[in-house]
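User: My collaborator sent over this chain with a note saying "see what the structure looks like." That's all I know about it. Can you take a look?
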Amino acid sequence: MTVLRSAVGRVLKNFGVGPNQIKVCVSDGSIDRMGDIVEPRGVKLANFRRNPIVLAQHSVNDPIARCIDIGLDDGPQGERLVALVEFPAAGTSEASDKYLRLLKAGVISAASIGFIPLAQEPLGLGGLRFTSTELIEFSFVSVPANASALVTERRLRGKSDQALVREFYAALARPRDRAADLVKALALRARVSARGLQAPEPDAFALQADRLESRRADQAAGALQVLFAGLHW
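Assistant: Without extra context I'll predict from the sequence alone. Here is the result:
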């Protein structure tokens, strides 16, 4: 049996999202309108991460986006399961474009989860506490079962965030023949990451970064060898 339940809004580090992204909480452990509770810590994510599909109104015929990050977050109201959703490039899917526009405009603001119950216990008044579940998908919906199921992150917070991401992309686009150029790009990547912003990077850049960090480690090890050799004498 697959059970559909709503989700709540807020996510990750609360720094805002990119133009094709939305942040949302998919389970907060509160009692929904059906009188049930889905425990966030009991949600199994392994299979979902292998196919992190995001639907529209729970319709398997309307895949609109992918979840690129999901995990537990401790918020003011307690533990929650939060996710970062990324929509495909404009023109890939009419449905995706439509829902992204509606979400960014605030016309649609709710999410709902589809899961398989693995373990549950009576909650009272006919409700259930789902202590263990397997997440199948989650959807953006018009009307959620959970009254607080609202998206809270729709865009970058300010011009400084947008400028930082643009600067990072510009640094990736430039040739990095010198180590100094790569170091600058790495520093920008660190600032983007520290703000919780999303800026995907080409595999080639990631490989260069790994090589640079590896080379630095080798240089540090060599310096230590020289130091210890000097102390030995």
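A starting point for your reply to your collaborator: The chain has five helices and nine strands.
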